[in-house]
Design a protein that fits this description.
By secondary structure, this protein is mostly helical. It has helices spanning 13-31, 47-58, 61-79, 85-100, 109-134, 144-176. The chain has a single domain, classed as Arp2/3 complex 21 kDa subunit ARPC3 (Orthogonal Bundle), CATH 1.10.1760. Helix content is 68%, strand content 0%. It is globular, with a radius of gyration of 18 Å.
């Protein structure tokens, strides 16, 4: 039987997690103010969908799940809706991308846009299902499919900007992050 090996800590894990948390908080605040201007009817840009996709591909399972759950809770409180819907949406997006991470790589903007667009289409379905469970009188709008597609396109077009901003923030945090000495393990 092979001995159990302890995995060495990832030197960029701290800046990645902190950068994603700061960017997520900033995007959740801006999504209720600035990004609401960039909507087409009911379809709005979902910048946190891109962050949940990024987290699924770049963060460890436990810490990434905690991060997107917290960000979903923040969005639920800022939006004034039923608490838990956005938490479920972002957690589902995160786990779907974490599973896909074993087979895919988001190494260019086209894949980033495609993954964010697909995950953005999941959001209205989960929210509509949650609203239907919470209130039996809730009926989905007749243009739900059009709204889903518009929202997916808007979020997909915005995804490369979120990915670039995350990379920039992580690089900035790496410059100020304390480094381990060569002899430390």
């Amino acid at each position: 039987m092979a001995p159990l090996r302890i995995k060495k800590p990832d030197p960029v894990f701290g800046p990645r997690l902190l950068g994603a948390a700061l960017m997520g908080f900033l995007l959740s605040v801006l999504s209720t103010t600035v990004f609401s201007w960039w909507s087409l009817g009911e379809a709005q840009v979902q910048p946190l969908a891109a962050l949940a996709v990024w987290a699924g591909f770049n963060l460890p399972l436990f810490s990434g799940a905690l991060l997107v759950t917290f960000l979903g809770y923040v969005v639920d409180n800022l939006s004034g809706g039923i608490v838990g819907l956005h938490m479920l949406v972002y957690l589902t997006m995160f786990y779907a991308c974490a599973v896909a991470e074993h087979h895919l790589a988001l190494n260019n903007w086209a894949y980033q846009m495609a993954a964010t667009g697909l995950m953005s289409m999941l959001s209205p379905l989960i929210i509509m299902g949650g609203l239907m469970l919470a209130s039996r009188q809730y009926l989905a709008s007749q243009d739900m499919l059009t709204m889903m597609l518009l929202q997916a396109v808007l979020s997909a077009l915005f995804a490369p900007a979120v990915f670039l901003a995350l990379q920039w923030m992580i690089r900035a945090l790496q410059k100020v992050w304390p480094r381990r000495q060569q002899g430390e393990d």
